SPW repeat protein (Rhodococcus olei), 142 residues
Amino acid sequence: MSTANLPIEKHPDIAALRHRYDEAASNPVTQTNEGLLMLAGLYMAASPWIVGFHGTTALMVSNLITGCAAALLAFGFAAALGRLYGLAFAMPVLGVWMIISPWVVVGVSTTAGMIWSNVACGAVVVVLGLGLMGVGFMRARG
């Protein structure tokens, strides 16, 4: 079969790759991973009000933006993993930012609660993000 005249979305390799990601997305482990990533992102976005970041506007904004980005990415992965898999590397990067932001954001006097909240949530996002990146390496069991 010649593939020279086929549009790219009809190419057999693309179809096989999409099928592989569809199978990976239907895996309960992957679905749990995406759900936990979304919850971690929502927690990070709400953490300034949960933990009480009084007088630390810069860290509040950082957590809000980072948490919303993580939650939206997780929602996108749950909706269309095959199309958004290329962005999976962003989750561990966001997690690392969550971990280091209490020390990197300028003009913030942190409390132990702020640090623990960011480090714990960031570690969860890093681990789950690396797990999501590993979805591309999963082999179909047959």
